[in-house]
Amino acid sequence: xxxxxxxxxxxxxxxxxxxxxxxxxxxxxxxxxxxxxxxxxxxxxxxxxxxxxxxxxxxxxxxxxxxxxxxxxxxxxxxxxxxxxxxxxxxxxxxxxxxxxxxxxxxxxxxx
Length: 112
What we know:
Structural class: alpha+beta
Oligomer: single chain
Strand content: 35-45%
Number of helices: 2
Distance between the termini: 30 Å
Number of domains: 1
């Protein structure tokens, strides 16, 4: 249980960077037809975003991977700065837990 709490705390801290001030350079969305390793990150098939210079901006992970000082699970979305450093992450395990909690509340008649 303590490992889960630590994992959630790390994801929340990393996600906090998503709301920082400042302009983001323009990005372009591309459709990856198959999983691809891009700049050392295992991006899943589907959409990925790239900065104007071609550097990876964001993608969904195909497998578990270290991201900064945290280990991030497959299915999570990572976002990098324009110079390739970890910026923030949207953890797949937290999204799934929140969806299950929301569904459970609707099923029990507690959510509007």
